[in-house]
Amino acid sequence: MGAVNRYRLLSAATAALAAALVVVLPAAPASAHTELKSTVPAAKSTTTKPVAEVTLTFTGLIKKPGTTIVVTGPDKTSYSAGAAEVVDKTITQKVDALPVGAITVAWRTFAADGHPMEGSFTFTNQVAPPTPQRSRARASIRPRPRPPAPPRRHRPRWARPATPRHPRVSYG
């Protein structure tokens, strides 16, 4: 009978240990979808320096195909310059000189698992775009005036219309 008691004791200890492990060990983290972590410039912020690019950082890897970022000014004009660059968890979009006012950044991308993501945020730009300076080299270049057209009477014979002066009339 000693062997049966040992077997029952060993079975009970194994079951208790398994139950303790289930309760004590934390559950493995669930596979969560990638989310937007941060932006530069930050959402709802005000910029006091010129913005040359907009950067979005995500919690997971991003796929490049299908990724777009459109940066628009208060006049609804797009200021995105070229295609967005994707490196691991970061998307960077170069921008032309932004106007003063509310700037909207609309984005669309795909996580590494294929999950589509999109969103938008705004920030306020307080830096006026630089005014274009006329270069002196351009100011000195002026278009040449066109020479006047020669009077009609000096037109060569081959350049005259081929219509007769007195049309012939035929009566059947």
UniProtKB/TrEMBL annotation:
Q: Where in the cell is it found?
A: Cell envelope
Q: Where is the CopC domain?
A: 33-124
Keyword Phosphoprotein set for record = no
Task: Give the region (Disordered) as residue ranges.
Answer: 123-172
Return the Basic residues bias intervals. 135-172
Q: Which UniProt keywords apply?
A: Copper, Metal-binding, Signal
Can you name one GO molecular function term for this protein?
copper ion binding
Q: Which GO terms describe its cellular component?
A: cell envelope; periplasmic space; plasma membrane
Signal peptide positions are: 1-32
What is the protein's major site of localization? other
Q: Does the keyword Disulfide bond apply?
A: no
InterPro entries per record: CopC/D, CopC_dom, Cu-Rt/internalin_Ig-like, Ig_E-set, TAT_signal
What's an example Gene Ontology biological process for this entry? Answer: response to copper ion
Question: What name has this protein been given in UniProt?
Answer: CopC domain-containing protein
Q: Could you tell me which species this protein originates from?
A: Phytohabitans flavus
